[in-house]
Write a structure and sequence with these properties.
Blueprint lengths: L6 H22 L5 H14 L17
Helix pairs in contact: 1-2
Length: 64
């Protein structure tokens, strides 16, 4: 299912997500692995009602 958002809706969503990302970074501080920030941001977003899908590593058959 595809949801169409207005420019205002996209702007608000971006503002909220960036706000959560800044909150996570301020609480954890600099210098950690990206995966740590990603997991904490996922937790924070889910805690605030967002449905989150994390990055998935996909390997191409010919590269293995």
């Amino acid at each position: 299912m595809r949801i169409t958002m207005t420019k205002k809706g996209v702007t608000q969503l971006s503002y909220e997500i960036i706000g959560f990302a800044i909150k996570v970074h301020k609480e954890l501080g600099p210098g950690l692995l990206e995966s740590i920030y990603e997991e904490c941001l996922k937790y924070e977003l889910e805690r605030n009602g967002y449905d989150v899908k994390q990055q998935i590593l996909q390997r191409h058959q010919n590269l293995m």
